[in-house]
Amino acid sequence: MRRIQGRLIVAVMTMAALSSFAQAKGPRFDLEGTVWEREARQCGVSPYLLYAIALKESKRLTGSDTAAPSAFALNNPVYKGRIIGSYSEARSELKRYLAASRLTDVGIMQVNVRWNGERVANPEQLLDLQTNVRVGASVLCDAIKRYPGDIELAIGSYHTPNPEKQQDAKQYGRDVLKIWKRLILLKE
Q1: Which of 183, 172, 161 is nearest to 45 (CA)?
Q2: The dihedral of CA 164, 101, 62, 10: what is its sign?
Q3: 72 Cβ neighbours under 8 A, 6+ residues apart
Q4: Is the Cβ–Cβ distance between 50 and 34 less than 8 Å?
Q5: DSSP letter, residue 126
Q6: Residue 95 neighbours by CB under 8 Å, 6+ apart
Q7: What are 156-172's pLDDT values in tens digits?
Q8: Which class for 150: exposed (0-12), middle (13-18), buried (19 or more C-beta within 10 A)?
Q9: What pTM, to 2 d.p., does this model score?
């Protein structure tokens, strides 16, 4: 089952690969019927916004001018960011990362275990694409509720919820919105 799931994730990632900052010419980029569309409904955000956050959080190059988010990305202050190629390797590495620091970001949406780990029964569940996107969408929805009049800050607090770092959060929000706009162009 995990092998099939891993292949499915790779297939989805490959199909979703897009020009990271190229002109909006070429094949149409469509998230209809995907986990991105389903989970975006939690609070009525664009699935392309969720995908833009995933690109910002876990981008890996898939070609000379293409990028896609990575389902098996891990990051923490001790081991830093790493893109891992398989579920079994990510599962093993996750144990090592968590032993070093609970401030570990997991998966495609880089869900932080320390701050959002209670949203799952076990941090390993965050290696599942659907679970990770569901939790990431929930974190974003909560941020939008906290900052209803400031979408940059809401998106930015997904990554940096510390009130003392609001300028960093706003910059992150601007970066994600730029990616989102490019994705919208690819959609059309």
Answers
A1: 183
A2: negative
A3: 83, 84, 85, 86, 87, 89, 90, 107, 127
A4: no
A5: G
A6: none
A7: 999 999 999 999 999 99
A8: middle
A9: 0.84
The rounded distance, in Å, linking the Cα atoms of 82 and 93 is 10
Full set of structural domains in the chain with CATH:
2-187 (1.10.530.10)
Alpha helices in the chain (DSSP H): 2-16, 35-40, 47-58, 87-100, 113-116, 129-146, 151-159, 166-187
User: HSE on the CB side for 58, CA within 13 Å?
Assistant: 31
Q: Is 18 helix (H, G, I), strand (E, B) or coil?
A: strand
Residue 93, amino acid: E
In angstroms and rounded to an integer, the radius of gyration of the C-alpha atoms of the chain is 16
126 and 107 Cβ atoms separated by less than 8 Å: yes
- pLDDT single digits (tens) 115-167: 999 999 999 999 999 999 999 999 999 999 999 999 999 999 999 999 999 99
Distance, CA of 81 to CA of 74 (rounded, Å): 6
For residue 130, what pLDDT is reported? 98
